[in-house]
């Protein structure tokens, strides 16, 4: 990035995260664990750091305690670089005393904090996506185009664009139309990319028409953002971006790498399991653009007499005489002998049981942290700090979405054991 390009980044994390419930019962979306050792917020922050952007603000308002702890324990910059990762929670002022009403409203209420930072551009990011992007490229293209606002866009086949904001562009990637989550086939057809643009993107002979879908990543010139927020619009995609057409210069930046919106329980589950594949769609092993997270100083995991196939296992785990298939096992997980895990995302624990706690729980019959002996778990997410007793059998197969005994939830066809739940010995679902 050019040394004279001054950028501040804003990560949107203020929503209730209702589509990720029950994973967001006690934490905000950016704090949800990912891939055995990370948090969702680590993705946009790492992309910023790898792109030379070190002034980053996280906007949030619900269940922020675990996010605060993670940020404070992870991201420390030396005093010479001027870097900061700061959380800006909703606050009462002499002008407002309620919650953020939407993405645009959240940024508007924090303009006073952004104005304290010297900058030319504001990079606005989502807090619930998995991707790797060099933001210096979109900033450079934005500056070269002369646009007021640039939207990152993915070419998506028409058959897969449900629930996405779509933009129509000319052959120079100037945005001429925008529709938030359109359903009318005629509208979608009118937003499809033309042959010249498809050829420019190397897809001249594509079998299916494609549209450019908004990734929820925006670059604003400083003045353009001030102007765009000088109203009462509350959402970027639904209101603000369409309102800027014809009033500001809007341009698209085409991104054709891996990108996944992790906004639902099903998407979260499948994205995690995909990481266990031999050739995963997202590469956490890229040393040139690493994903950063908290250093917990945990010991290596201990795996004794196990059959393991396609698994990601975090630090500090103890796995005894078990069978694990296509599963993600997070830090401090304890899996006891005779247990089988098949397509499971296990989030581990915040702490180990002490010897005294272990003896006390053993005497009382309370299950220990982690999984007991002879458990069979299939197609499930096991959240942090759960206690699952011996001979427990859990599967989502043949069951409807809903809340079941002992607080077990099935959402989007995925069985979830919420954070801190205890499931007694011998329970079957």
Structure explained in plain terms:
The chain has 429 residues and is of the alpha/beta class. The protein folds into two domains: 7-274, Spore Coat Polysaccharide Biosynthesis Protein SpsA, Chain A (Alpha-Beta Complex); 302-423, UDP N-Acetylglucosamine Acyltransferase, domain 1 (3 Solenoid). It has helices spanning 42-50, 65-74, 103-109, 111-114, 135-145, 185-191, 195-200, 222-228, 236-244, 265-274, 355-364, and strands spanning 7-12, 33-34, 38-39, 55-60, 84-89, 121-126, 129-131, 149-157, 165-169, 175-180, 210-221, 250-254, 259-261, 302-304, 307-313, 318-320, 323-329, 334-335, 340-346, 370-371, 376-382, 387-388, 393-395, 402-403, 409-411, 414-417, 422-423. Strands 1, 4, 5, 6, 8, 9, 10, 11 and 12 form a nine-stranded mixed sheet that branches. Strands 15, 17, 19, 21, 23, 24, 25 and 26 form an eight-stranded mixed sheet that branches. The protein has a three-stranded parallel sheet with strand order 14-16-18, with no helix packed on it. The mean pLDDT is 92.
